[in-house]
UniProtKB/TrEMBL annotation:
It comes from the Bacteria. Pathway: Amino-acid biosynthesis; L-threonine biosynthesis; L-threonine from L-aspartate: step 3/5; Amino-acid biosynthesis; L-methionine biosynthesis via de novo pathway; L-homoserine from L-aspartate: step 3/3. Keywords: Amino-acid biosynthesis, Methionine biosynthesis, NADP, Oxidoreductase, Threonine biosynthesis. Pfam families: ACT (PF01842), Homoserine_dh (PF00742), NAD_binding_3 (PF03447). InterPro entries: ACT-like_dom_sf, ACT_dom, Asp/hSer_DH_NAD-bd, HDH, HDH_cat, HDH_CS, NAD(P)-bd_dom_sf. Residues 357-433 form the ACT domain. The keyword NADP applies. GO terms for molecular function: homoserine dehydrogenase activity. This is Homoserine dehydrogenase.
Amino acid sequence: MKPIQVGLLGIGTVGSGTFNVLTRNQEEIRRRAGRGIEITMVADLNVERAREIVGDRARVVADAREIIANPEIDIVIELIGGYGIARALVLEAISAGKHVVTANKALLAVHGTEIFAAASAKGVMVAFEAAVAGGIPIIKALREGLTANQVQWVAGIINGTTNFILSEMRDKGLDFDVVLKEAQRLGYAEADPTFDIEGVDAAHKATLMSALAFGIPVQFDKAHVEGITKLAAADIRYAEQLGYRIKLLGIAKRRDDVGGIELRVHPTLVPAKRLIANVEGAMNAVMVQGDAVGTTLYYGKGAGSEPTASAVIADLVDITRLHTADPDHRVPHLAFQADELRDTPVLPISEIRTAFYLRLRVADQKGVLSAITAILAASDISIDAVLQRESNEGEHQTDVIILTHETQEGAMRDALAQMQALPTVLAPIVSLRKEELA
């Protein structure tokens, strides 16, 4: 049987890994897919570099539209990234009747509804395993492996850069700015790390996971996004003393009590005994809670040339197996049939429910703690634990650390405003969310 012919748009880190892994494991992949899969055309603006990678094994062009126009190409892999030209090329490939594989989480999180609708109308597939958590097959798990379950929540460490930074801050007791520079020196962080450290990259991925978990359209604009730039080494240290570790989590949670979905990315205290709390360095991990299966954990490399290539090629194999099938009998793009997606609202951050960690710099005098606890009690916020640091000799101020039980975010915000107004609270209050993930 004639091999499936693939066109590759962009042969950078992931593109070169995809080409190399597909070439190296070609026979094993053929045995799994039922026929050969070959990248026969590559488009890259740096034609000379692309030719150095592929040699004479594929035709190299500078114009991606030559691949889209080629009637011999069955599948287009988009690895250009970004929202602009990538969106245009993906839609053009779909219009030309090509199946698409992409690792572009930003594109799908923002324009996924449009892209999936176009693909469904044309009867082609858009596969995106590599868009979330690199080599971890979390998309396939949510879309197929957990089909029997009503998913309750998904929580993931889905950005390796921020996890590396937080791990280093905890291990070495250093502040964020110092560790960021080291991460850049080692290549874990980009020269402009904004998307990573401000939580945007994780929010793109959490948006896709929420759609797969709950059968809703992708709604990146509704996600609440906070990064790690304001985290202090002191809070990581205090969290450790209380039995927690701080991780940047992407969280999507079903709220049947109010008929909504929580979709949020922020630094989160997680009990140190949880497996996900012990995911260190640049590794990724995703937890999924299903009503039938309970809690499952998916762990591995969330980025890198060949780990991400592993996911890209898995998508190529899936499309090779299914491209002749009736489109109505294929696995839906977002796990649920397109006409079964629901308009369940994504809740505003003020309506989420979670527990909190609070750090207050206060005057070291009588009555301070009672005034703080009175405000929390009046807001119906119960306290789980309190840690008060002894002030050093000659100091007249100290830190009070409070862990609360679960409460509504809006109530906590009101309480924080009242506590901040106390004359004995001497600095901005640090507030972090806490999840038990059990």
